[in-house]
Amino acid sequence: MSCCVLIPCLNEEKAITAVVGEAIALGLPVIVVDDGSDDATADVVATMPVTLLRHDTRRGKGEALRTGFREVLRQGFDAVVTMDGDGQHSAADVPRLLAAARAYPGHIVIGARLLDKAQQPPGRRRANAIADWGISCACAQPIADTQSGQRFYPRKVIDLVEIGAEHFVFEAALLIKASRELGVRVVSVPIASRYQGGFRHSHFRPVHDVTRITLYTIGRAYHYGNFIRSYRKSRATLPVVVDPPLA
Description:
7 strands; 42% helix; globular
């Protein structure tokens, strides 16, 4: 299984050197998509041995991921691990996601922020809980931490690149479409919540973006029909959380 790391970023000049450097140290190819930063982010990344793609203007996280997915497909990788560029995800957790992917072939693997949850701002914690409830229902399967940006996607999910969703809705849309139309299952690997250490203010707006995600999710839930059955399936069992040994 050939795999690379994809890092979308916007104005991350303070964190991007460490984030990309740690990803490079994994020995995997790294693709960075700069979403129209107006600081030195792209200049810093340009000095590193990665594939750098740049948007002339800001297009949102969804379009940054879409640009990255297209490059993943162009380079012929079988899978990709995504990480945010602000330092909230540790590259040290990537081997654990890959181990879970080997143990559960064809699954989406999410780095779920289940450890050190006290680090999460209360507003984010509530927003994530609402999103988990709604997206799990739309997916008709229970999922832990539907809002985490650290994920492993197999090739058949990457092929959904042109799905009609933008901004932070894009990641929710991938989960829903892959679950409902491809029968893809989701497992999660517990990772630490990392909100301390001087990260820049999050681009995620809890009220605005959760509203967008919620409206999209409700629409898709009713699109697939039998809402009550989907809800029951999402609540019938606990989310699958695994931490298999490293190879």
